[in-house]
Amino acid sequence: MEVKKAVIPAAGLGTRFLPATKAQPKEMLPIVDTPTIQYIVEEAVMSGIEDLIIVTGRHKRAIEDHFDKHLELELALERKGKHGMLETVQDISNLINVHYVRQKEAKGLGHAILCAKTFVGNEPFAVLLGDDIVRAKKPVTKQLIEAFAEKQTTVIGVQEVEDEVVHKYGIVDYSSSDEDLYKIRNLVEKPSLEEAPSNIAILGRYIITPEIFDILEDTPPGKGNEIQLTDALQTLMEQEEMYAQAFSGKRYDIGNKLGFLEATVEFALARDDIREDFKKYLIEFLQQDTDMLEEIAVAE
Ligand code: G1P
User: With a 6 A CB cut-off, is 109 part of the ligand 1 pocket?
Assistant: First the structure.
């Protein structure tokens, strides 16, 4: 079967980015000039996804508005002759047909995915988490879809992470590997370094078979007292083979401030319109002596 549907959970409170997220969803925070969720939706589109559902919560209307048409703005841009910008704005609403469902209670990632059950039906589907953005020649979701085409079973996107951050991720244990494709033996959600079976972390991209929904319905709360997708995948693995694809591409953890800043700098350097000026600024800035940098840090 082909993978044509995707689920993007976006119901979190975004507490790590307060106060910026007090009155706007964290998914709308921009990297350069583009909301983070747009990078995720674009990845889905470039991977061949045709139907998309975003699982939202309270205060998420801005996301719906972002992927909708904005006639007043389009008219204003047209009048001002700003055709390039007009095209940019129109392209967003023409990207793909986006559906929405609300997660009424914050009961965890597993529960958020369960909210998409009716939309997905009996097909394999992709999951893309908004805290992980990847710059890759071939979109990560596409890499996973290709692995799925070969194996016809659940495939999870992984990369190796440092010891210090193992406790922040779902970690996989594998029995064998065929180049970048590992056969999973076990999955643990956010283990301590001592408990972790490896350093291979689940990094926000999945292709999952629809059998997961019945399992999610019966999955009790796990780590953090939340219904964990990782726990449901562990149960699913007892019924079907499961693979982890070590995807290629640079991944940014934009769920934390440092990762967000790294993405901002590197995405800006990848942009034709600002690369040269920004590079010049960065080089000059970093050439200042350390005392000067200290002064900037304490100025105000
Ligand atoms: C979720 C998953 C975890 C995964 C991580 C990737 O955790 O539960 O298994 O490794 O995303 O970013 P969260 O970061 O939402 O707590």
Answer: yes
Provide the residue type at 121 as one letter.
G
Q: Of ligand 1's atoms, which has the minimum distance to the CA of residue 229?
A: 8
Consecutive H or E run containing 66: helix 61-66
Domain ranges of the chain: 5-254
- Tokens found for residue 16: 């790590």
Q: What's the CA-to-centroid distance between 202 and ligand 1, angstroms?
A: 7
**What is the tens place of the pLDDT at every residue in 53-68?**
999 987 788 999 998 8
CATH node for 5-254: 3.90.550.10
Find, among 175, 171, 160, 223, the residue nearest to 194 by Cα. 171
243-281 burial string, b = 16+ CB within 10 Å, else e?
bbbbbebebbbbbeeebbeebbeebbeeeeeeeeeeeee
CA distance 15 to 214: 31
Neighbours of 228 (CB within 10 A): 24
Q: For ligand 1, say whether the CB of 203 is within 6 Å of any of its atoms.
A: yes
pTM more than 0.90: yes
